[in-house]
Amino acid sequence: MTVKRYLPFASAVLLTTVSAVAFASEPWSMPGEEAIEPYTPSAANAGAQPFAGDQMFQAFGGQAGVARIVTDLLDRSFADARISDIFKGHDRVRLQRVLVEQFCFLLGGPCAYSGRDMATAHKDMGVQPGDMNALVENLQLAMEEEGIPFQTQNRFLAKLAPMKRDIVDK
Question: Which of 64, 122, 124, 141 is the most exposed place for a label (fewest CB within 10 A)?
């Protein structure tokens, strides 16, 4: 692992730890992030119910593993010519924080999700089915890099799949 990968990882762990405190305040206006329109934080905004227990969270390497997967996913997606234009102009620091929170929460970890709901977060982005497929491919590669077993990856992807209807433009 290079130093480049440690810095975003450390930031993600710190931001996720801080986010539990921030959840009660103003998650739309966090230090180091671009402010967005205020909204009402809710666990329902995560787009799905979390897995019961913490087995999935542990299978993903806990908070550190989730943070590495999100960092890898974002590195791949920001560099992926198929979808990089979608990510341009978006606050990577905020995206890193809310994705770590969302994945941690959905996997049954001890995180609160403080982001917006999926439809609002992706409104007017023009995400098409092919874009979503590229993102999922990048997530699969990130999970594979972290050593997540194939069956475990599929369980998580099945949890995320219904969000497509709120993310992809119709």
Answer: 124
Q: Cα–Cα distance between 151 and 63 in angstroms, integer?
A: 20
Residues whose CB is less than 8 angstroms from the CB of residue 155 and which lie 6 or more positions away in sequence, other chains included: 51, 56
Q: How many CB atoms lie within 10 A of CB 50?
A: 19
DSSP character at residue 93: H
Q: How many CB atoms lie within 10 A of CB 156?
A: 21
What is the DSSP-derived secondary structure letter of residue 146? T
In the chain, which residue ranges form alpha helices assigned H by DSSP?
3-22, 55-59, 62-79, 84-87, 92-106, 118-122, 129-145, 150-160, 164-167
Q: Where do the domains of the chain lie, and which CATH numbers do they carry? A: 3-167 (1.10.490.10)
Q: What would the pLDDT profile of 21-66 be if each residue is shown by its tens digit?
A: 344 466 666 677 777 777 788 889 888 999 999 999 999 999 999 9
**What's the Cα-to-Cα distance from 115 to each of 100, 127, 168, rounded to whole Å?**
10, 19, 18
Q: Which of the two residues, 3 and 83, has the higher pLDDT score?
A: 83
- Measured at the CA of 54, the angle between CA 51 and CA 58, to 5 degrees, comes to 115
Q: Which of 30, 1, 35 is nearest to 17 (CA)?
A: 30
